[in-house]
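Case study.
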Amino acid sequence: MSDNLDDDRLLYEDDEHQFVWFGWEEEEGSNSFVQTNQCLIINGGQGYLFDPGGTYVFHQVLEQVTRYLHPRQLNTLVATHQDPDVCSSAPYWMKATDAKLLISRLWLHFVSHFGLDEPERVVPLPDKGAKLRLPTGDHLLILPAHFLHSEGNFSVFDERSGILFTGDIGASIYPKGGREVFVKDFEAHKAYMEPFHKRYMHSNAVCRHWVARIRALPHKVKMIVPQHGAMFQEDQVEAFLTWFEELQCGGDYLQAIYADQPF
Amino acid sequence: MVESSKVLYEDDNHQYIWFGWEDPDTDESLVQSNQVLVVNQDQGYLFDPGGAFIFSEVAAEVNKYLPLDQIRYLLATHQDPDVLSSVTLWLKATNARLLVSRLWIRFVSHFGFSDTSRLIAIEDRGKMIKLPAGGEIIMLPAHFLHSEGNFCFYDSRSKILFSGDIGAAVFPSGERYLMVEDWEKHLPYTEGFHKRYMGNNTALRKWVNMVRQYPIEMIVPQHGAIIGKEHIPSFLDWLENLQCGTDLLDECYGF
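After joint prediction, the assembly is written out as follows.
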């Protein structure tokens, strides 16, 4: 048994603002589900949950969330993109809470296919992103991250904590038993990120675009939290940005991908 | 009014059936979607089964042509909810196995089922399944159009290509037709979608060059109208010259 890897972690806390990480994992020995992370921000008694997760993990995530606040206090669900591991639980969350679901305008008419009863609670995010004002006056910045991998995709920056939730960007997939909560050795960690990023991310031109945008943020990024795998802290943030902006990926290897050749 | 199913090809041992699901309330909350069933001898192959929301209607319609327990494979072009969030229900209702890109194998389980023995990964270069009464279904790579792990399905017997999101059209409220009649008139319903969702022109060219090597009678996309043989050259010419996706990166990033 791995030690408490699926426990919740408080990544940031002050009197009015908390940033909580939940890492859910399939039972030891199973290789059928990709592991996912969820994040909850609590500000002024209101909750903001991002990448609520798959149908299969709903009950477990709900239970963890209720340790911090009543589900009716959840104000907003943000889905970085449309994939099943990101938001196929959305119909359950919409029933259990009064929250709105924010998702790219590209997926507005697609996510209803999960089976949502109240499509009017789904709010389309424009391509340029959005700025959400929290009760304390701080902001959550929803930043464009299109084509990384999804065509309509966002990252979420919490100005107050300096934590950037990156969805699939920075995701890592560990061999059985090898999972970490925080990246320990960045150089060694690359091996767990590289295959995923090289195949799923669109191309180097897009990686560069996104990194430039992150570097131009008004506040320093103190931590990067992806939707799968381990988190990056302090100096690892810059190490990750540098690695990602140099990555050749996706369409850069189009010939090889069509031919199933190694790349 | 467009009917809800239609046989597009038929011979003694083979049928190619189109199903078009549409939101009866036309409140535009759900994108219209097409499904395809190939019946060869007594076995069925269902393409892009659709969203969880429309499962009952699609299953009832499919059942008019073939008992559900004779469906041998479900084939998904990619991972999106409108393509296969119904998969959990289909796997319960049938004995079929699901074919989907290797990229999404560990993601689709998140729709809510745990029996992964019925999931088969399609490798990046594609795959072919032989049909019992002759002919084959060829899964042709269509990566980055739009999904990173994406396929089109070519039925060699009917020569019909199911293209998933490629060639998809979104109609304005009140307008809808089964077959494209006038390509120029149809173009505005398809252009906006392709410019924003498709990866880039390089990926389109790669796909068009591959597709031109197959004799094709019809192209059936997952949304909107069927493109008949007479319009296929115009469609492919348009597609191979389209600037889209990351070709227009500054526009969609807002700077």
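Observations recorded in class. The domain at 8-259 of chain A is CATH 3.60.15.10 (Metallo-beta-lactamase; Chain A). Helices of chain A lie at 58-66, 84-87, 90-96, 108-111, 186-200, 204-215, 235-245, 254-259. We will return to this complex in the next lecture.
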